[in-house]
Write a sequence for this structure.
DNA sequence: GCACATTGCTTGACATCCTCAACCATTGAG
DNA sequence: CTCAATGGTTGAGGATGTCAAGCAATGTGC
């Protein structure tokens, strides 16, 4: 993969100037990037016998979350989350816990097995995105800042 | 949406320097960006009574493509594309055409209505991604270059 | 030119995902 | 205390997704 093209220190020092990128071009490029990202993610999840959606759901459980919160993060109907969590619970990757403060609420938490699975998916995902490691610190920092500005509502992740 | 926060000319003039971004942070940010992008796309497609997958499929038909090519671009089984194309054909958004050179092959092309629908989805999508328009030409060009390097296989789209 | 392998697409079976409506238990508002 | 709203689930129905199998067509090798 790694050619002998010299690593750029900063992109603004790139010699032959590219024609300026239009919003439409970036929109289309982001479509391809999103597709490529999910392809890698789906492959990592499939490696553990999980679907893309199951992998996504597990990855969102950085801390216990309610069914409603998961539905919001997954942008789907709450009833859909019931089924997804059923299947993950059946695999002993998550568990439903009652909320002490509100008996309507169920909180979903990873099991130990679920945590191991998430770590494993992330490791596979990272090894499939080697080009991110090949960027310089400067470039990654610039990329993060630009993506933050292009997608302001994704800038601060819920812990 | 548009606050009175002054627009930065270039990110490298950003005063307080950010801590460097790690590959893992970028990986996670790309997950959020991909999710946000698809959320916008799904909303644009739903505005025309289409699912995300139907919208994606139509968007890939910048020129007629075989069922096999679509399956590859959508990263799914060929039999799944049969069903997706059935539903789009039923809406008169695409048509199946035999390939003159190989009678096994069916080429899928947009109808006039399909082309109008794609233009409409793209316009909605663009208007949902206003932050891309608010970046300077310099920033968009930098972002494109960095995404090209982060995802080398998405750099040159099939026409 | 023929036999066999491979390919492209479809069908069928089955699982997962997704929305919508309706329901019940629970909490919030007035 | 009554009514509204919320959280989660169930059920119905449609879309997506994989896998195996089948058929028509093309490719390969002799």
């Amino acid at each position: 993969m790694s050619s002998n093209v010299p690593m750029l220190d900063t992109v603004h020092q790139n010699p032959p100037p590219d024609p300026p990128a239009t919003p439409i071009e970036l929109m289309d490029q982001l479509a391809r990037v999103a597709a490529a990202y999910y392809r890698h993610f789906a492959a990592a999840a499939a490696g553990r016998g999980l679907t893309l959606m199951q992998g996504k759901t597990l990855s969102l459980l950085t801390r216990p979350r309610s069914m409603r919160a998961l539905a919001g993060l997954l942008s789907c109907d709450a009833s859909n989350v019931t089924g997804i969590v059923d299947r993950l619970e059946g695999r002993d990757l998550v568990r439903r816990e009652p909320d002490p403060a509100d008996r309507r609420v169920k909180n979903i938490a990873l099991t130990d097995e679920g945590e191991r699975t998430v770590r494993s998916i992330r490791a596979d995902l990272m090894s499939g995105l080697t080009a991110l490691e090949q960027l310089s610190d400067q470039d990654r920092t610039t990329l993060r800042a630009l993506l933050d500005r292009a997608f302001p509502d994704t800038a601060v992740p819920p812990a």
In short: Chain B touches chain A through 59 residues (CB under 8 Å). The first strand of chain B starts at residue 65 and ends at 66.
